[in-house]
């Protein structure tokens, strides 16, 4: 009975925190959906912050597909394509409803709580470092850290656009349907645009020479 009550509270909290975010969700809303009471939350989890931490930890154990993304030993161009296809499908979620963890991610981006540090270290940073390694391999050997970061964030931003701007896109073009073919085409487009941009990046020495010539003219 106790395990069942705890599980019901976590399931309800995943939904409420995903819908409302940490700051706007209340314990009363959660226990009402779980069919329990506030005393049960205090007993199993402590205060709201501790409860939220347990809920996010549980969500992380349920959403492990990022850890299974295999980039293999392919050329960096193919690795970028694999990453972008995975990421676009992950954020758009055409094969499944958005997971509780994805919904919590969105809430944390809009209105961060202290748990964002945990999400960054356990989920976001590992994937970002995979992308960074790919981008570094595609850019000139003497590309600066700033250039590497700019290209990483450019790739991520293009993918996330289709998550956060979808309501606007639906109103701009009411014939868009996020089918698997459409999402695959988006991923291919993002990959090609990103590769084209990285291929034209001059090395640091060439960039310095360009700046020097511009100053002399």
What is the secondary structure topology, with strand pairs?
Layout: H1 2-24, H2 27-34, H3 38-44, H4 48-62, H5 76-92, H6 100-110, H7 116-138, H8 145-164, H9 166-172, H10 180-199, H11 204-216
Helix pairs in contact: 1-2, 1-4, 1-6, 5-7, 5-8, 5-10, 7-8, 8-10
Q: How does this model look, in words?
A:
The chain has 217 residues and is mainly α. It folds into two domains: 61 residues, Homeodomain-like (Arc Repressor Mutant, subunit A, Orthogonal Bundle); 152 residues, Tetracycline Repressor, domain 2, CATH 1.10.357. It is built from eleven helices and no strands. Helix 1 packs antiparallel against helix 2 and helix 1 packs across helix 4. The longest helix is centred in the first third of the chain and has 23 residues. The termini are far apart. The mean pLDDT is 87.
- Total strand count, please? 0
Write the CATH homologous superfamily of the largest domain.
Answer: Tetracycline Repressor, domain 2
Number of spatially distinct domains: 2
Q: Uncertain spans, ≥5 residues at pLDDT below 50?
A: none
What are the secondary-structure elements, in order, as H or E?
HHHHHHHHHHH
CATH class of the largest domain: Mainly Alpha
Structural class: mainly alpha
According to CATH, the fold-level topology of the largest domain is Tetracycline Repressor, domain 2
Shape: elongated
What oligomerization state is this entry in?
single chain
CATH architecture descriptor text of the largest domain: Orthogonal Bundle
Structure annotation, total helices:
11
What's the main sheet like?
none
Tell me the distance between the termini: 79 Å
Strand content: under 5%
- Compute the average pLDDT: 87
């Amino acid at each position: 009975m106790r395990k069942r009550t705890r599980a019901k509270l976590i399931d309800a909290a995943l939904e409420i925190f995903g819908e409302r975010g940490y700051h706007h969700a209340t314990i009363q809303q959660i226990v009402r959906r779980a069919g329990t009471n506030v005393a049960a939350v205090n007993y199993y989890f402590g205060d709201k912050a501790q409860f939220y931490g347990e809920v996010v930890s549980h969500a992380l154990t349920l959403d492990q597909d990022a850890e299974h993304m295999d980039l293999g030993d392919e050329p960096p161009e193919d690795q970028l394509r694999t990453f972008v296809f995975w990421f676009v499908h992950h954020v758009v979620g055409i094969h499944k409803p958005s997971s509780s963890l994805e919904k919590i991610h969105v809430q944390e981006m809009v209105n961060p709580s202290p748990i964002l540090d945990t999400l960054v270290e356990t989920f976001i940073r590992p994937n970002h470092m995979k992308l960074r390694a790919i981008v570094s391999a595609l850019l000139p050997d003497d590309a600066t850290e700033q250039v590497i970061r700019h290209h990483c964030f450019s790739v991520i931003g293009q993918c996330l656009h289709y998550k956060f701007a979808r309501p606007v896109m639906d109103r701009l073009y009411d014939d868009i349907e996020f089918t698997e073919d459409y999402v695959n085409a988006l991923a291919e487009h993002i990959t090609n645009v990103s590769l084209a941009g990285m291929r034209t990046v001059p090395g640091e020495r060439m960039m310095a020479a360009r700046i020097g010539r511009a100053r002399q003219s």
